[in-house]
Amino acid sequence: MLLTEHEGKALLASVGIAVPPGMLVRSADAVGRRKLPYPIALKAQVASGGRGKAGGVVRADSPLQARTAAKKLLATKFGGETPKAVLVEPWLAIERELYLSVTVDAAADGYVVLYSPRGGVDVEQGAAPASCEVGPARNFRAYRLREALAEIEADIAVRERVIALARRLVLLASSRDCTTVEINPLAKLADGSLVAADAKVVRDDYARFRAADIARRIDADHARQPRAIARALAGDLMLVWLDGEVGLISGGAGMTMAAMDLIADAGGRPACFLDCSANPTPQGYRLAFELLDGEPLVKVVLVSIFGGLTQMDRVARVMKEIMSERRWRKPVVFRLNGTNVTQANEILTQAGLHNNATIEDAVREALSLARKGDRR
Amino acid sequence: MSVLIDAASRFLIQGITGNVGRFSARDMSAYGTRVVGGTASGRGAADVEGVTVFQSVKAACEATQASASIAYVPASSAFDHVIEAFEAGIQLVIYPGDELPVQDAIELRAAAKANGATLIGPNTPGVISPGKAKAGFMPSFCYAPGPLGVISRSGSLSYEACFRLTGADLGQTTVIGIGGDPIKGLTAAEALDLLHADGETRAIVYLGEIGGSDEYSVAEYAARPGAKPVAALIVGRQAPPGRKMGHAGALIGSHADTHPAKMKALERAGVHATGTVSGLVAAAKRAFAASRQAA
Question: I need a labelling partner for A354 at 20 to 30 A (CA). Which of A35, A242, A365, B242 fits?
Answer without folding.
Answer: A242
